[in-house]
Specification:
The structure holds 2 protein chains of 2 kinds. Chain A is α+β, with helices and mostly antiparallel strands. Chain A contains 17 helices and 20 strands. Chain A folds into 3 domains: 123 residues, D-Maltodextrin-Binding Protein, domain 2, CATH 3.40.190; 145 residues, Dipeptide-binding Protein, domain 1 (Alpha-Beta Complex), CATH 3.90.76; 236 residues, Dipeptide-binding Protein, Domain 3 (Dipeptide-binding Protein, domain 3). The radius of gyration of chain A is 25 Å and the shape is globular. The two termini of chain A are 21 Å apart. Chain B is an all-alpha fold. Chain B folds into 2 domains: 70 residues, no CATH class; 228 residues, Orthogonal Bundle (MetI-like fold), CATH 1.10.3720. Helices cover 74% and strands 2% of the residues of chain B. Chain B contains 13 helices and 2 strands, in the order αααααααββαααααα. The chains are: A alpha+beta, B mainly alpha. Chains A and B meet through helix 1, helix 7, helix 8 and helix 14 of A and helix 2, helix 3, helix 5, helix 7 and helix 8 of B.
Chain lengths: 529, 324
């Protein structure tokens, strides 16, 4: 400490800096995440950042791997006994952080709790509602009976994190948030939680699976993009998620850092107003008069609008390579991906011909809406689409709004065409049911079908897929339905986003397609510095 | 005096009532919180359940009456997002913001007053001109840009200070404060300076103008003629007289700092109220927005009152009863 002799204060500061480096390179990991975690109660608010934390602390019967494939977690195996019965065999010897045993009784308790969390703004009951009856055969075997065939059971149950009947019988969301009740079977236990600021974790040594490398992990919420990048560059955090596309090129070349990327599950697409037969509010002729019938009901017009879009230009220039052009719901890794559906090259001539065929030789005017604070570069994408549409004679006005305003208008069917995104589960019935199936409260379909597209053939195939337990057959049905919806330009997919993380060199990340940032996926490469 | 305070309290209640109505109507006009909070995968039945759970199925006026009834019992509602009492959420975040606001105001006075005095006493000196030119920068540079530059220089390039976040805290009277630890001060330094920059310029300009005016006044000439030491003239007679505008402005600015330090708090990931309110506005978490704005109204009224009381202490000619 000889050279540290100038002042006591300098010395203390230097010691602090050294201490900072020591903890950073030892057994602890600091993650800088862009979206705040709103609750530690795994059944309170369904939101990606909450899920990421829940998967560090809790376990579920099944889980999805980095590529969104279903793999065992608390259940070792499962099978469909008949069309409406699923049997799960539980892993033995699993303990909660407080030492309590995990058994079938706890699964039953969890399923009772999920629909009954008070004040939940987005409950997990959508995943447990199909279960009509729970039957415990022995402490490690449980059966679920459903009213109708439920092929998605193993996938949906991955979302339901298991709690302990003894521990959590009276647990409230507030107690979870305070950390007292955040007791699960996962690889980390919560040691402290400061709402909206940071969550600190310690490794749970009794974890049944692969032990994470890190003794301690800290999750820091840094919502500002530039500040998150700066925190990484300053060495305050080891890894950040949601790397802004404009920073990616620079971070890739930085010797001190490495970047992990993977094609994700979030599709960005344009939605059209299918609900109005008569004039739609944001489409007029060139003199500003409403056009009736609604031109967007004509598949030729929708196809023309889709053909006018140069998707490659958007993904290369605006998204700076962190998206791939798409002509369907899913990326190549998805269940139900159609290999023959490839994004068409932009063809303004063909688009103009289609418009002329549909009776719009002179084009028309349209307002394209979209959010400006939701998806990477969202407002710039709609600007580009607007210019491309104008090029084929559809004079386009752009209106980008904050998500809070935009989504309410889109949900009320106030808009004629708009940009929006959808994070799929990686399984094809998920976008089919939600985005293009007819809006139907009783079936629970089409809740996010804000353009109200409706096609009996798509509906029939979606129903069939939802009844088909056999995966091979189901995938074929999903493909058929996807092809019909896409041929009809029910929506116009633009691109699928790539998820990007940046971390200090010496770390590696098993990048997840579902965008979750979890400490157990980060490992050191080679010798620690 | 009692009458004056009573009138002030009534005014406060009135303003808070109007504020709560405005927020209710405003949030209703912007959009539907359930659309934002709910998982996109939720079906229609789940959406209806969430709307009922948050009490949004009632007509707006009934929702408001429910709120008013609970508010009179001291309950400002529970956050839609966190399922915790809105007031508790805000009060939990308050120490962080107070720390930042006091830090910024302290820095502003510590730096601004001496520089302003100097610039006022030697208005034509090169240094004074430099100070004044610098203060223009302080006014005109946008906070978010300065904040990012501070991070780039002091955290990324030099590595002297941590880039973001709040440091280690200690518990005093049940609340967590970070300014009592070295780590906390290191974290506080940049955001406080960033917030202070505008105020420093303000204080410099106000002080300079005040000093230049006061130096020409008869009482200063008289004090000089009496042979008082120049430092006594400046530090006692001049300073006391120019403090009224400075205190008014710094006081009002202090309120603004607490209420609207949103930009600085976002950039430095400072877990204060500003960050809470902007996050809440983004997801239309109405109970938090209402509670926050009512608290802010209350705070401004208290600050104005304190400013008025300080006037009377500084200037015996001011009488509270004569003011409305």
């Amino acid at each position: 400490m000889g050279e540290c002799a100038w002042t006591a204060r300098g010395c203390a500061a230097a010691a602090l800096v050294l201490a900072g480096f020591a903890t950073a390179s030892g057994q602890s990991l600091t993650l800088g995440v862009g979206a705040p975690v709103t609750s530690l109660d795994p059944h309170y608010h369904q939101l990606s950042p909450n899920t990421a934390v829940a998967e560090m602390v809790f376990g579920a019967l099944t889980q999805t791997d980095a590529k969104a494939r279903i793999i065992p977690d608390l259940a070792e195996s499962w099978r469909a006994i008949d069309e409406t019965t699923w049997e799960f065999r539980l892993r033995r010897g699993v303990r909660f952080h407080n030492g309590s045993d995990f058994t079938a009784e706890d699964v039953a308790f969890t399923l009772e709790r999920v629909p009954n969390v008070p004040n939940s703004p987005s409950s997990y009951a959508i995943y447990t509602r199909p279960i009509r009856e729970v039957q415990i055969l022995d402490p490690y075997t449980i059966r679920f009976r459903t009213a109708a065939p439920y092929p998605l059971m193993p996938r949906d149950i991955a979302q339901v994190k298991m709690l302990d009947r003894q521990t959590h019988a009276q647990a409230t969301t507030e107690q979870f948030n305070a950390g007292i009740m955040a007791i699960g079977t996962g690889p980390f236990r919560v040691s402290s939680h400061r709402n909206g600021e940071r969550i600190e974790f310690e490794r749970f040594d009794g974890y049944y699976g692969t032990q994470p490398h890190w003794q301690r992990a800290t999750l820091r919420m840094i919502t500002n993009d530039a500040a998150r990048t700066a925190a990484l560059l300053a060495g305050d955090v080891d890894i950040i998620d949601q790397v802004p596309t404009s920073d990616l090129a620079k971070l890739r070349t930085d010797q001190r850092l490495s970047v992990a990327e993977v094609t994700g599950l979030r599709i960005i697409f344009l939605s059209f107003d299918h609900s109005r037969v008569e004039a739609t509010p944001f489409v007029t002729d060139n003199d500003g008069k409403p056009i009736s019938p609604n031109p967007l009901k004509d598949p030729r017009v929708r196809r023309a609008l889709s053909l006018a879009i140069d998707r490659a230009a958007i993904t290369e220039r605006i998204m700076e390579g962190s998206a791939i052009p798409s002509a369907q719901f899913l990326p190549e890794s998805g269940f139900g991906y159609v290999p023959t559906l490839n994004p068409a090259k932009a063809d303004p001539e063909a688009a103009r011909r289609l418009l002329a065929e549909a009776g719009f030789l002179q084009g028309f005017r349209i307002t394209l809406h979209g959010p400006n604070d939701r998806y990477p570069n969202d407002s710039r994408i709609i600007q580009a689409v607007g210019q491309m549409w104008t090029r084929i004679g559809v004079r386009t006005t752009i209106e980008a709004q904050p998500w809070a305003t935009f989504i309410s208008r889109a949900a009320r069917q106030d808009l004629s065409s708009f940009l929006i995104g959808w994070g799929t589960s990686g399984e094809g019935t998920n976008p089919l049911r939600n985005l293009v199936a007819t809006f139907d409260r009783d079936k629970g379909y089409g809740a996010s079908n804000r353009g109200r597209y409706s096609n009996p053939r798509v509906d029939a195939l979606t129903d069939a897929a939802m009844r088909e337990i056999d995966d091979t057959k189901r995938e074929a049905i999903i493909r058929e339905a996807t092809i019909i919806a896409m041929d009809d330009t029910a929506i116009a997919p633009l691109h699928i986003q790539r998820n990007a993380w940046a971390m200090r060199r010496g770390l590696a990340l098993d990048a997840r397609v579902d965008e979750l940032t979890r400490a157990q996926d980060v490992t050191p490469t080679g010798p620690a510095r | 005096m009692t009458l004056y305070l009573l009138r002030r309290c009534l005014q406060a209640a009135g303003v808070m009532l109007v504020m709560s109505v405005l927020v209710f109507v405003g949030v209703y006009a912007i959009g539907d919180p359930v659309e934002i909070l709910i998982s996109p995968e939720a079906d229609q039945i789940e959406r209806e359940r969430a709307i009922r759970a948050l009490g949004l199925d009632l007509p707006l006026w009934q929702q408001y009456l429910v709120f008013l009834k609970n508010a009179l019992h001291g309950d400002l509602g529970r956050s839609f997002v966190f399922n915790e009492p809105a007031l508790k959420l805000i009060l939990d975040r308050m120490p962080a913001t107070l720390e930042l606001a006091f830090g910024a105001t302290f820095v502003a006075l510590l730096v601004g007053l001496p520089l302003g005095l100097y610039a006022g006493l030697r208005p034509n000196g090169a240094l004074a001109r430099g100070i004044m030119a610098g203060s223009i920068l302080g006014f005109s540079l946008p906070t978010f840009w300065v904040g990012l530059m501070l991070i780039m220089v002091f955290a990324v390039q030099l590595g002297w200070l941590p880039s973001t976040g709040r440091g280690e805290t200690v518990d005093v009277l049940g609340t967590r404060w970070s300014f009592l630890t070295l780590d906390g001060l290191r974290h506080l330094a940049m955001p406080a300076f960033n917030l202070a920059l505008f105020k420093i310029s303000l204080v410099i300009r106000l002080t300079r103008a005040g000093v230049r005016e006061a130096m020409l006044m008869d009482y200063v000439k008289f004090a000089r003629a009496k042979g008082l030491h120049p430092s006594r003239i400046v530090l006692v007679h001049v300073l006391k007289n120019i403090m009224i505008p400075v205190i008014t402005v710094v006081g009002l600015e202090f309120g603004g700092t607490i209420a609207f330090s949103v930009v600085t708090e976002s950039i430095f990931a400072w877990p204060g109220m500003g960050k809470l309110i902007i996050d809440s506005i983004n997801v239309l978490d109405r109970p938090v927005i209402v509670a926050y704005l009512m608290l802010i109204v209350l705070m401004f009224i208290v600050i104005n009152l304190l400013v008025d009381l300080t006037y009377t202490a500084l200037d015996p000619r001011v009488r509270l009863e004569g003011r409305t």
